Amino acid sequence: MPDIRLSSAQGKWILLTTVLGSSMAMLDSTVVNVALPRIGHDLNADLATLQWTVNAYMVTLAGLILLGGSLGDLYGRRRIFVIGVIWFATASLLCGLAPGSTVLVAARALQGIGGALLTPGSLALIQASFHPDDRGRAVGLWSGFGGIGAAVGPFLGGWLVNGPGWRWVFLLNVPLALVCVPVALRHVPESTGGVPLAEPGGAGGTAGKVRAHRRFDVLGAALGAVSLALVTYALIEARSGSLAVALTATAGVAAAVAFVYVEKRVPDPMMPLGIFASRQFTAVNLVTLCVYAAFGGFFFLTTLQLQVVAGYSPLRAGTALLPTTLLMLLFSARSGALADRIGPRIPLTVGPLLCAVAMLLMLRVGKDADYVTDVLPALLVMGAGMVILVAPLTATVLASVDTSRAGLASGINNAAARAAGLIAVAALPLLAGMGPEAYRSADAFDAAFRRAMPIIAAVLVAGSIIAFATVRRPGPECRHPECRTHGLVTTPPLEPDQRA
């Protein structure tokens, strides 16, 4: 049993390591949107390239995040975490030095692989290292500091784009990694399947070493990522109406079918389909797909709208989005406590409806929009809706499966949210009629933005209806979330895997 106390020096070093590692991925997910217009102008890129700048990262991250956790269980959580941090930093360096859009998109895909290794790894290290009495507090501090990082992200991204340039949005990860990796190797114990392997900084002797005799589902992970990539490509390029797009879409659907086939038959599937036997789990994931598709599309389009149409600087646009994150950070724990008392059905019904109202309020944001009267009301309503729904959504996911599978359920829910976001970023410009050069014209982008917001609102209403019709109050014996403080607005929080 892990016995490191949070109050000890080693415990503080472990917490610092996990916060630094996860902050790299959290910062990246919040700052890149702010830099998109400047990236487009500097690299002479069209709207499709900006979509790929976001989605190349999300494709590999969403497709491989479940596999990343399994690799840590098998080969050592610290080892996979460190590899993920180094990989992520190296890919970030490539992004920062990219001479053109093709290299940037490829480097972003590599970044997603690193994120898939370090994101579950940071939480797994806490679960495997700390004494059970301190584990909940450590997870709370980890999620709280992560929320602060998410709040700082848009402001920091805007400042970097305004000052040193958009490339520093990516280069910032390199010094973080240079601090994180030595601390991890020096202070974090290695473990696999919940069993320590060696003292931190040691040579990793054979005494007490135990390896988990499980296979990992490489084929399933590859098929999932390929399916997402092909469908995303087809949606982004659908304006051309070419035969290649039709063939790509068909291949994407075929890869998805093959993924389901493989997951049914491999001995240790990445995503055991039996978990969907729980109707509540399936229903809540459908709600997740709706609300996080809406959030992903909203934040992608809004950062562009504020800069291209309203004339905000990158710094002002990034700062403008802070209220939603701050509301999440301040009130998510209280929202979870309220849902414990009244059940999840009302929060999961009302929350998306409030967010839908916020989408319609965003129609007030046009040329020379005033922040206080035009932008802020929508963001406050949006933040209130997110506060109401995110914590109950996570709690309901965990409550809908056996406690031993709660970590897996959380991972699937997190991956579903990321996949929904990337599909939304690919599909919304198409549905709203945005041309390849739309972001270069304030009038063209504003017209498409006004078509997109009602579409997003409709998706949120659909999520609310699904929640009202399907979500029921869980039993009193269910597991409750450990990540009670949450500030990341584009994905639900990950939860610890109880196998550690």
Automatic annotation (TrEMBL):
Subcellular location: Cell membrane
Membrane topology listed for this record: Multi-pass membrane protein
Keywords: Antibiotic resistance, Cell membrane, Membrane, Transmembrane, Transmembrane helix, Transport
GO process annotations (BP): response to antibiotic
SUPFAM superfamilies xref list: MFS general substrate transporter
GO cellular component, one term: plasma membrane
Molecular function terms, GO-annotated: transmembrane transporter activity
Keyword ATP-binding set for record: no
Keyword Transmembrane helix included in the entry's annotation: yes
Domain Major facilitator superfamily (MFS) profile intervals: 14-475
Major subcellular location class: membrane
TM stretches of this protein: 12-36, 48-68, 80-99, 105-126, 138-160, 166-185, 218-236, 242-262, 283-303, 315-333, 345-363, 375-399, 411-432, 452-471
InterPro entries: EmrB-like, MFS, MFS_dom, MFS_trans_sf
Name of the protein: MFS transporter
Lineage start: Bacteria, Bacillati, Actinomycetota, Actinomycetes, Kitasatosporales
